[in-house]
Design goal:
The chain has one domain: Ribonuclease Z/Hydroxyacylglutathione hydrolase-like (Metallo-beta-lactamase, Chain A). Helices cover 19% and strands 29% of the residues.
């Protein structure tokens, strides 16, 4: 299984509009973060986790030529507003694309993309996708997936486990039963917004405590704001923990 980090930034992205901080002005490409998303590839099929507002640009940057399914973590704009860009994949693959998520998340998608589900004029150009509620274990594109509930403030968010790999973004609270379902991982990807505490995201120290408790073989942090300079922050982290960056590829 191959993982590509399409985006690793918070909802503002990095650089932030109008910001002159050292990270936003950095020449280091690893400090340039589009909105958070990953692509999972297995046996020639691609599963997208979240559809960021930069999805088209992310696919061009990473030479993504097909999307077979989409898993959504929650319904915030930076995680769903790229769904319209599925149109080109519908056209090239001549197929409707299944989109999976919690009932709450899919309800938000249905409202935000109401035109997808309404009869409209021919030639208007709209994506073709179906909405498929998930909970617990299920299978997508011959990949076994487990949906695990975590919390983004008071908002339920769906984390996903794919065998030895788990993806947990936009989170600041993990219920005990969900925590137990993430033990025994090879690779954990986890939200780590910034150094200072935040009301709906883990800060860096909180994320490190989760890693220390779960003990994955390796961990990567994502959904990062412009507070975290890539190289300087990495230098402070344990040897098995790194900041992810746009374009990073992993083999699981």
């Amino acid at each position: 299984m191959r993982i590509i980090f399409l985006g690793t930034g918070t909802s503002h992205g990095v650089p932030v509009v109008g910001c002159d901080c050292a990270v936003c002005k950095s020449p280091n490409p690893k400090n340039r973060r589009t909105r958070t998303s990953i692509l999972i590839s297995e046996n020639g099929r691609n599963v997208l986790v979240d559809a960021s507002v930069e999805l088209r640009l992310q696919c061009l940057q990473n030479d993504v030529r097909r999307v077979d399914a989409v898993l959504l973590t929650h319904g915030h704009a930076d995680h769903i507003f790229g769904l319209d860009d599925l149109r080109i994949f519908n056209s090239r693959q001549k197929a409707v694309i299944p989109v999976y998520g919690s009932e709450q998340t899919l309800g938000i998608v249905r409202k935000a993309f109401s035109y997808v589900f309404e009869e409209t004029q021919i030639g208007g150009g709209k994506p073709q996708f179906t909405l498929n509620p998930v909970s617990g274990r299920f299978r997508v594109c011959d990949v076994d997936v487990e949906a695990i509930e975590v919390f983004h403030g008071r908002l339920p968010v769906t984390a996903y486990r794919f065998g030895p790999f788990a993806y947990v973004t936009d989170v600041n609270s993990i219920p005990p039963e969900s925590f137990e379902r993430m033990r025994g991982l090879d690779t954990l990807v986890l939200d780590a917004l910034r150094y200072r505490p935040h009301s709906t995201h883990f800060c860096l120290d909180e994320s490190l405590r989760v890693v220390a408790e779960l003990k994955p073989r390796r961990a990567y942090f994502t959904h990062m704001a412009h507070d975290l300079e890539h190289d300087a922050t990495n230098a402070k982290l344990p040897t098995n923990v790194e900041l992810a960056y746009d374009g990073l590829m992993l083999e699981i």
